Amino acid sequence: MKISEDILKSKGIPYIQKYPYGKLSKTSKDGKRHYETPDGRQVPSVTTVLSATKDMTHLHAWRKRIGEAKAQQITTESANIGTVMHGSLEKHVKGIERKPGSNLIHQKAHAMANVIIDNGLTDVSEVWGSEVSLYYPELYAGTTDLVGVYKGANAIMDFKQARRLKKKEWVEDYYLQLVAYSEAHNKQYDTQIKTGRVFICTQNNEFQTFNIDNYDHWVGQWYAKLEQYYKSIL
Prior knowledge:
This protein has about 230 residues and is an alpha+beta fold. It has helices spanning about 45-50, 55-65, 70-95, 105-120, 170-190, 215-230, and strands spanning about 1-5, 15, 25-30, 30-35, 40-45, 125-135, 140-150, 155-160, 195-200, 205-210.
């Protein structure tokens, strides 16, 4: 085990290079995100699988209700905030200086990252990797925001931004993402990770966190989605 030179300056959480994480190349296939795995195969991303198997009825109704132009504006702004917030959190866990920036998007994202740092990352005692590429051979791949130790348990962790607070029944895709990354990590590195945690900050700086409360259930749901996806593209 090699301890990196990067130590979290603000919180003192060690950044430990416990596994030989590498980066997977992202590709596009039929307009959908895929990854190229070391054996040369192109496999769908976790988000591609979830998008293709998700009931979009409520999303389509929302876009129709508020208008396509307004819906696209909200979607684009949220995506931009999420990208900047993730970048800020990645810098934090690697001990790199963070600056709020000058425009409103960057300032909002920086403040939201601070909320997650102060309310979620305080319970993280080790970071093994940030923006970690993971794959399950021949099936799927993806990138998780954080792998490490949360409240004493080895865990997969993800950061999310939201426009409003979430109900538990609204975040099923988050659980599926977490177990998908856990299964890939366990397969690649012979681990037994069964803890997943998602940290959410709303654009009003409200904090929420959800954890996988029944790993076996959500694993079953994930593999059912995966089977549904592959049947749909045959």
